[in-house]
Amino acid sequence: MIDVIGGGFAGCEAAWIAARLGAQVRLWEMRPAKPTPAHKTGLLAELVCSNSFKSSNRHSPAGQLKWEMEQLGSLMIPTALKHQVPGGEALCVDREAFASEMTAAIASHPRIELIRKEWTGADTDHPVVVATGPLSSDAISRWIETRTGSGRLFFFDAVSPTVTAESVDFCLAWEQDRYDKGDGSYVNCPMNREEYDAFVSALVSAERSTPHLESETRYFEGCMPIEVIAQRGRDSLRFGNFKPVGLTNPHTGGRAYAVLQLRQENAQKSLYSMVACQTTLKWSEQKRVFRMVPGLQNAEFVRYGVMHRNTYLDSPRLLDARLRLRDSQTFFAGQITGVEGYVESGATGILAGLFACVSDEIPPPPRECALGSLIAHVTNTDSPDYAPMNINWGLFPDPGTLGDKSVRREAKLRAATEAFLKWRETLPLP
To answer: Which domains does the chain have, with CATH numbers?
Structure first.
């Protein structure tokens, strides 16, 4: 017996693969008896935001992840393809038709019992997969806090944008820690007075998103949106997190008027987050405004800044490579682990359901493949400030191939495919 808590993408995929492996599954979904602020129906796998599953291009991170999921017997990817609507290169779906078929498939499976009420959080003697998403109920959140320890469950998501290292222009930017105190984990993007003034003007006038699911937003002083700080005075950023002191621009030999710093996000130095740039700006505005900063004019964003309610675990300190709470039979999947996106949530659901059935009998997915790269993010203890993220090029390990960006990326996909296929052979899947 396996209990799966939550009927979103992760919960459905976890229940589906566990049932395919012969387990009896109870899938708990509190909707429609107890609604959430985001969901509108009682259907499983309801799409609450976009109807896009991102790129279908096999030569993209999202495309590779979808392919790996299909090879493991995913329910959501074939269902999405069946109900696809025009969306260019993206896999977009008819949201009602998709969710209706997902619900019917789960409800009709002979080894899945769909229970329409809130799980009590009682201790059990069999595996549990928690896939309750970013809007976990208060009762479930309290249960998780009890199991994981106080301070390990985050309820407010204040995240700065993240860019790929290869998209930063190092003819303008440079690596240096302030006062050279450190090991060069920061990249500095300098601005002169004119550039800084133009950036601040664009920042304070840019269009903001409506705070999601909140009638009123209150921010902690320590994680104030960058545009709110800028409104307090034109020099507030320059005398704060954008201060240029302790930094010498090797391209000019002098000190900049202001400096936007990027902080290393992983051991490979393939991803950098913008220091203290959490923001409520619309994503298109973030791209426009931050690309005004010298060194970031061609920045490739793998995650945009957000500030909203989001429940997720401090997964690197809590979960092992099988998405299991250490020393327990509790597995976590979906956005509560710190992945973003429908496909990423479903992918972790497949893995959690798989490992809830076979536990230590098989190895975790290899680091080179998309699934392994996603798990590497979730368990990345190198990053002290853990934050949710989608699958992206920066999560894949460097294969050491020489050449331009496109050549290196194709090498990453070849390595991912080869590693995944070898791992797939070890699995007891039908």
So the answer is: 2-157+308-424 (3.50.50.60), 162-304 (2.40.30)
